[in-house]
Amino acid sequence: MTSASAPVRGRTPARDVAGLGVGRAFGFVAPAFLLIGAFLIFPALWTIYIGITNYRLTGVEAVSPSIVGLSNYTKALNDALFHNALWLTMVFVLGSAIIGQNVLGFTLAWIMRRTRPAVRRTVEAFVLLAWILPSTVVAYLWVAFFDRDGGTLNGLLGTQGTAWLIDYPMACLVVFNTWRGTAFSMMLYSSALQAVPPSQLESARMVGASGWQTLRDVVFPHIRGHVLTNTLLISLWTANDFSPFLLTKGGPNHESETVPVYIYNVALQGGELGYSSAISFLLLIANLLVSLVYLRLLRRRS
Amino acid sequence: MAGIDIEGLATVYPNGVRAVDGLDLHVADGEFFALLGPSGCGKTTLLRTIAGLEAATEGTVRIDSADVTRLEPGKRGVAMVFQDYALFPHMNVSENITYPLKVRRVAPATRSGVATRTAGELSLQGLLERKPAQLSGGQQQRVALARAIASEGKVLLLDEPLSNLDARLRLEARTFLKKLQRDLGITTVFVTHDQAEALALADRIAVMDSGKLRQLGSPREVFARPSNTFVANFIGSTPMNLLPGKVTSESDISVVSVPGGSLPAATVSVPADAEVTVGIRPEYLTVASGDISGPALRGGVVVAENLGTQSLVTVDCDGTLVGVTVPEEAEPSPGSAVVLTAPATRVLLYDRESGELLARQPAPVA
Amino acid sequence: MRPDFVVRRIGFYVLICAITLFFAVPMLWIASAPFDASPGLGVHWPDWTLENFRKTLEHPYAMHSMVNSLLICVTTAVAVTAFAALASYALSRVRIPGRDALLYGLLLLSSVVTGTAAMVPIFVMMFQLGLIDSRFGVALVMTGGLLPAAIFILKDFVDAVPKSYEESARVFGASTGQILRDVVLPVARPGLATIMVWAFVNSWGNFLVPFLLIRSIEKQPGAVLMQTLTDEGGSVNLQVLPVFSLLFSIPVVVLYLLVNSRYGFRFHGGIKS
Hints:
The complex is a heterotrimer.
Chain A: H1 21-51, H2 60-63, H3 71-77, H4 80-111, H5 117-132, H6 135-146, H7 152-157, H8 164-167, H9 169-194, H10 198-206, H11 211-239, H12 244-248, H13 259-269, H14 273-301
Helix pairs in contact in A: 1-14, 3-14, 4-9, 4-11, 5-9, 9-11, 10-11, 11-14, 13-14
Chain B: E1 4-12, E2 18-27, E3 32-36, H1 43-51, E4 58-63, E5 66-67, E6 78-81, H2 93-97, H3 99-103, H4 108-121, H5 137-150, E7 155-159, H6 167-184, E8 187-192, H7 195-201, E9 204-209, E10 212-217, H8 219-224, H9 229-234, E11 241-249, E12 254-258, E13 261-265, E14 275-280, E15 286-287, E16 297-306, E17 310-317, E18 320-327, E19 337-341, E20 348-351
Parallel strand pairs in B: 3-8, 3-9, 6-7, 7-8
Antiparallel strand pairs in B: 1-2, 1-4, 4-5, 9-10, 11-12, 11-14, 12-13, 14-20, 15-19, 16-17, 16-19, 17-18
Helix pairs in contact in B: 4-5
Chain C: H1 3-32, H2 51-58, H3 62-93, H4 99-112, H5 119-129, H6 135-159, H7 164-171, H8 176-205, H9 208-213, H10 222-232, H11 235-263
């Protein structure tokens, strides 16, 4: 007979609900984390190393790259094309994400609240379709739409011969990405608006607030967090988006070369793997900063 | 002979909380046993430790004299009904009931026989093909019970068995549960935070607080003679009056002075001038008529609340509020002066510091 | 009816029409051009024919690239679902040391390390591993990229499943294997189906990874082949591209509708990231 209150010796039953045990749990987690480690974490870390070498796709440096310290980064500081890419990325994010998708998404969510279900479903179907179609298909649709000779846009406007993608490449990209990504903002704002208590909207109407006043004083305080979440997420996605390549390849003459396209062109067209890694690393750092700000704000809200 | 013996049992969570803290308990074979206490008192952890879902840190659990402390839940011979019933949503009633048999690789033909028989015992005929989502709350509970019974455990554990039912169904299910336990004669331990439920169902009740046992006894004992002020406060649908008092005369029947007068107490061991807490249930106080010679409380009626056949009258005795239940026809009007008396055997004296019942008081005359 | 009300109603519907046209007009081409005898880049009422479909089916690489896409995406979807299911279950149910830090890191990682930011090292790594021009290599990279988000979504789902299901099976003597097979798997099926569709749709539309890693045209998935055909130009391709765009879009739309109707659209940051 064991004496009372003696510590329990030997193997006790596993504490978790399925009797998995810590050992097997690690086994369950291992394959996923091996893959993530090999194809996500390792490449991210390796960027740092390649970024301080003069590694090239071809030539002597392809066989035996040497470490060049921070010279890739000092090069980036003075690279007019990199500055151009940064500037274009900012224009792209500001125009298509922060303004375009945000405003259009919210407008759709707001006006669709009280429309007839049939109308709402139709409009939403088109907006969602633009979002779920594969990116190469979507890109081709817009290449056709903007085409100089037979394009639909020129047909509609009667401006045959205007090469939109060559004359106004950034404007085309902003319109394209707004079209492509609005669905996310629309859905996020729709669900956010449903959380606004109807009684508060009715109170605002009772005291005679205009639509704009209602938005500002009743709706916005409720969805402030959602606006923040949405803006940060779509900015992050837009800044890293590679689909501008599918429309313009960065051209003409670097006029639409956003950072992701620039990285691709430097790395695989120019073959400068070391330099492009340094720029990739800068992009990673920028992503990290935005994500940390986002997570910090999320934590403060919860 | 499937009793449960618990010795020196402690369950400590990784964060250092001692949810069960050195407990000794014996549940007899065939007994219907309640673990009662406020939420967070460790009663559910104790039940889960018996089941093996929580690992005991110290002490032993024996079921049917066999040490099961280190055994997997499935090897202890226990059956359990969870608070949310945990019916598998993708299986129909029949599959749910016989899942314990399927685990043991019992042949399908035998299984369907068990399903039909158990469903019959629990009046679930005709529901065998339904999915849990298509059943009412009461039916779901019976399926969960049927599954536990079909598993043929030596001991049945129920976690808050009635808490998921609405008030009307709860009474019906309570009666059903008590009759079922009597018919099966299976050793049953159930957890509840509802003192009325524990009083109504159990053969014996263990009242727990902060992982420790505060009182163990039959419903009658626990209700009539709470062994400390914690239990006194917790048991009873109208809380026990706990008044500050002082023993004035020491004999076979002591007299304690309390705000508004004095009360007799059948106690032998409390010295005169001792500061005590006096406990008296509202049900045991009576509104006296005529002249009273012995110890009594005097006060004015503040408010009377109708409880159906009875009324709960709150009396202001020298600034202290005292509750008393009276038959509805005898309800005094608010503002009137009343005199309250109590039999000496019903007045309990507790140590002012520790809150423990002062010992060696004779048992009340039933 | 007051005139200002009428004006506002009209304005409201003009706005809705304008927005709908903005989204619909670029898509009209994919509905008309595949059936047009002389397909151009502009939208016009088609001169009905199915000739383009015949051309596409006969195209040496078109249907082949669909098979490549299918191969890559099924591999990716199955791998993502299986590995994410195992990992998210263990992370949800077992107190593994360092679990919270791990999840926090995953959340960060999934948004920080994007395809574009990691394309150079991924290219170099696959180059040195000899996995350039390998469909399996493409599936591996996609799986690694989708796993963090998949684990996150699935862990949310598993967290919402009551633990009493497994506990009750455990009390009845079920082994861990039996619990996983009889209880966890069937209960988690909607979540698994959603993740599988999500992973499939994501890898189906992924252009960058196969574009970086696949060299030979006969191994290209649909997303890359479209770009190749666009770059080539020519009247044959102009007949093939509309049909191919249409066929290539169908699986995604069908899967989306399927998930939407069966499980309802759950807002896990969208079915597509």
